[in-house]
Design goal:
The protein has about 150 residues and is an alpha+beta fold. Helix content is about 30%, strand content about 30%. It has a 3-stranded antiparallel β-sheet, with no helix packed on it. Strand 1 (about 15-20) and strand 2 (about 20-25) form a beta hairpin. The longest helix is centred in the middle third of the chain and has 23 residues, at about 50-70.
Length: about 150
C-alpha cells in the first residue's frame, strides 16, 4: 500500500490567466483575482499576492491547529490570529533608482489567541506540535524565519 503514488502524494492543479492587466486563478469552484504582487497603498481595495499569501499562511496553520485539536477531542471555542510579514528590499519593486536587491519575505511573525477548556500546558504543547502537520508551515519554515506564538485567553 505504501508503494502507491496516491498513498504518499496528492496532486493539485490550478489554472491562471492574465487578461486586462489582471491575473485570475481558477480553482475547481472559484475564481481568485490577483491585482498586483503587492500594494503599498494602505487604502487599496484590491487584493495582492501578499494579501493572499498572508491569508494562506494564517488560515492554513489555524485550520491545522483546529483539526488536530478536534482529532484529540479538544474543542477550541475561539481562535484569532495576527500575522506580521517583514518584506526585505521593497523599493526594488517600485523601481526606485539605486535599489536592485532581490525583494523577499524575510520574516513571518504570527500570534494566535485561543480559548479552549483544556489544561494550559497541554494545550500549548499540543498547538506547537500540531505545526508538524501543516503543509504551509512545513513548506515555508526553511525559507522564511518564522516566529509563532500561541496565547491562551480566559
Amino acid at each position: 500500500m505504501n508503494n502507491l503514488y496516491e498513498s504518499n502524494n496528492y496532486d493539485v492543479t490550478f489554472r491562471g490567466i492574465w487578461a486586462n492587466h489582471n491575473f485570475k486563478l481558477y480553482t475547481n469552484t472559484d475564481l481568485i483575482p490577483v491585482s498586483s504582487d503587492i500594494s503599498f497603498d494602505i487604502n487599496s481595495d484590491y487584493k495582492s499576492s501578499i494579501n493572499y499569501f498572508a491569508a494562506s499562511i494564517l488560515g492554513g496553520i489555524a485550520h491545522t491547529v483546529i483539526s488536530s485539536c478536534k482529532r484529540s477531542n479538544i474543542e477550541v471555542e475561539e481562535l484569532e490570529g495576527k500575522i506580521h510579514l517583514v518584506l526585505k528590499n521593497p523599493l526594488t519593486l517600485l523601481s526606485v533608482k539605486g535599489y536592485s536587491e532581490e525583494p523577499k519575505i524575510e520574516k513571518c511573525e504570527i500570534i494566535y489567541y485561543l480559548y479552549a477548556e483544556a489544561d494550559e500546558d497541554v494545550l500549548l504543547k499540543f498547538c506547537y506540535s500540531s505545526l508538524n502537520n501543516s503543509f504551509i508551515y512545513n513548506t515555508l519554515k526553511s525559507v522564511i524565519n518564522f516566529e509563532i506564538k500561541f496565547i491562551l485567553i480566559d
